[in-house]
Amino acid sequence: MDEKEIPKNLERDDEEYVSLISSLPSDIDFVGRELFKYQESWYGNKMLQAIINFQRGFEPQDTDIIIASFPKAGTTWLKALTVALLERSKHSSDAHPLRLDNPHNLVPFFELDLYAKSSKPDMTNFSSTPRVFATHVPLHTLQEALKNSSCKIVYVWRNVKDVLVSYWYFKSALMKVEAERSLLESMFESFCRGVSYGGPFWEHVLSYWRGSLEESQNVLFLKYEDLKTEPRVQLKRLAEFLDCPFTVEEEENGSVEEILELCSLRNLKNLEINKIGITSRGVDHKNFFRKGEVGDSKNYLTPEMEKRIDMITEDKFGGSGLKL
Ligand code: A3P
Predict the structure, then answer these.
(1) Does the beta carbon of 136 sit less than 6 angstroms from any atom of ligand 1?
(2) H helix runs in the chain, sequence order
(3) What's the Enzyme Commission number for this chain (predicted)?
(4) Span from the CA of 269 to the centroid of ligand 1 (angstroms)
(5) Which residue's C-alpha comes closest to atom 10 of ligand 1?
């Protein structure tokens, strides 16, 4: 495409879009919604349009930071930690952006927020660098939008069983219903088949895992469980990767602990803004904060469910070098 040409926003009735979507495999997810398989992952119609808008219209800058994850793998936490790292020493504690807004409003998703309606969104809020964005798409789909720029990508992943249970609670909260077992069971089936937003989970994780091995300067691969067990180590890894390592003085002054405390689930959950606020997409902020426990899925999945999903995980991750 000519550099000056403005990318076209594909509308649902656009011939080009209709032709693309009709060429894609489709399936039905756990709530009976039609999903389309695009670049090996599943998306609803609107999401797919947004991803195409993003791939066509995004103009990357080498200083951009992108937070990537499968939904419910720890995105909110990673967004908060990244903002806190980059913003440290800029604000008095009361005026800190994380005390005034939810991490999802501070770090928008490409496909859920910015490119949901247009391939040329308003970027005036991103006048200072580095710009920080987020996405739930796998690495190969993201890379198409990054067009060989050297943005930094930070990926967080989490045990699939906890992701599933977290997703179940989140979905139920969005639908404003109690978390019913029947929904968990149908979500489980969809997950195992890989037919859920951004799924299959395993291929999603593997795309970033391989990317982190091939391009370690550009892709950092973090695990939710490691962030829980050794938060200091992981936060320092993140800071170094983002080229803003802690100085000796900062370490001595407790800056690492301050950030961890600011971004802790307990602290964020109890902030007024996260008790009452709503994201620009209409999601109650409080829905992003639940228990944050490792292994919570044990309380909900039957031994048979665990066995089945463990077998899929062993099969898919076997030989990848990925440590569970
Ligand atoms: P649970 O449902 O297991 O509690 P995402 O941010 O990707 O949507 O993932 C949501 C999960 O991360 C939820 O897990 C939520 O409680 C947990 N979470 C949110 N903020 C967190 C934080 N600051 N620290 C640890 N976990 C957090």
Answers:
(1) no
(2) 15-22, 45-57, 75-87, 97-100, 103-106, 139-146, 160-174, 181-193, 201-214, 224-229, 231-241, 248-252, 255-262, 265-270, 272-276, 303-317
(3) 2.8.2.-
(4) 10
(5) 72
CB 132 within 8 A of CB 78: no
Rounded distance from Cα 168 to ligand 1 centre (Å): 13
Around Cβ 33, how many Cβ atoms within 10 Å?
Answer: 11
Asked if residue 297 has its Cβ within 6 Å of ligand 1, the reply is no
pLDDT tens sequence across 12-67:
668 888 899 999 999 999 989 999 999 999 999 999 999 999 999 999 999 999 99
Ligand 1 centroid, distance to 14 Cα (angstroms): 38
8 Å CB contact between 83 and 106? yes
**Over residues 303-314, mean pLDDT:** 97
pTM: 0.95
For the Cβ of 169 lying below 6 angstroms from any atom of ligand 1, the answer is yes
- pLDDT tens, 152-174? 999 999 999 999 999 999 999 99
Instruction: List, in order of start, the domains of the chain with CATH numbers.
Output: 15-317 (3.40.50.300)
